[in-house]
Design brief:
Layout: H1 17-25, H2 34-47, H3 52-57, H4 59-65, H5 71-74, H6 79-85, H7 95-115, H8 118-123, E1 131-132, H9 146-157, H10 165-174, E2 178-179, H11 186-192
Parallel strand pairs: 1-2
Helix pairs in contact: 2-7, 2-10, 9-10
Protein name: DNA-3-methyladenine glycosylase I
InterPro entries: Adenine_glyco (IPR005019), DNA-3mA_glycosylase (IPR052891), DNA_glycosylase (IPR011257)
């Protein structure tokens, strides 16, 4: 299947249809739902050292293996299930990343207790509103920002794993804390609304 080019899109998404769908429907849309935040934290921490395309292709496998990203369930995964996950070809079979997801689910709920929701916590790092960048080329995109540095440092202090500044900036882009669509991408104005 070829990717339709009738609309101007960010060039990074033109590799395969799932990428286009992700770009056109999810990337950069502000997220306030804690379960969706947790989903992206799991997927982004799994991505470390890999391509996002690899993770997108395994997303459904993660959804099934990680209880539809129910952090309350993931926080209670027993060691026997970790061993099962290590045999599951539908996810990234890295024991440190799997254990990080379980640990992060536990830390996630601690943040919820303190702030009322994870969404309240994370949106506080951008003053409660999307940072609107005006990128004209992909070369203008940043890998980290002072906000992602601060957030990653705070998450680390709270015991989160596999969530450095680059990974957290990707999370901020994915969940609409930052609008990094190129200005000539059809989604830039839609997300900006």
């Amino acid at each position: 299947m070829t990717v339709p080019k009738e609309k101007n899109r960010c060039p990074w998404c033109l590799g395969f249809p799932e990428y286009v769908t992700y770009h056109d429907t999810e990337w950069g849309v502000p997220v306030y739902d804690d379960r969706i935040h947790f989903e992206f934290l799991v997927l982004e921490s799994a991505q470390a050292g890999l391509s996002w395309a690899t993770i997108l292709k395994k997303r459904e496998g993660y959804r099934q293996a990680f209880a539809d990203f129910d952090y309350k369930v993931v926080a209670e995964f027993p060691e026997s299930y970790v061993q099962e996950l290590l045999q599951n070809p539908e996810i990234i079979r890295n024991v440190l990343k799997i254990r990080a997801a379980i640990n992060n689910a536990q830390r996630f709920m601690e943040v919820q207790k303190e702030f009322g929701s994870f969404s309240n916590y994370i949106w506080g790092f951008v003053g409660g509103k999307t940072i609107q960048n005006s990128l004209r080329t992909m070369g203008g995109a940043q890998a980290t920002t002072p906000e992602s540095d601060l957030l990653a440092k705070d998450l680390k202090k709270r015991g989160f794993k596999f969530l450095g500044s680059t990974t957290i900036y990707a999370h901020m882009q994915a969940t609409g804390l930052v609008n990094d669509h190129l200005v000539d991408c059809f989604r830039y104005a839609e997300v900006k609304k």
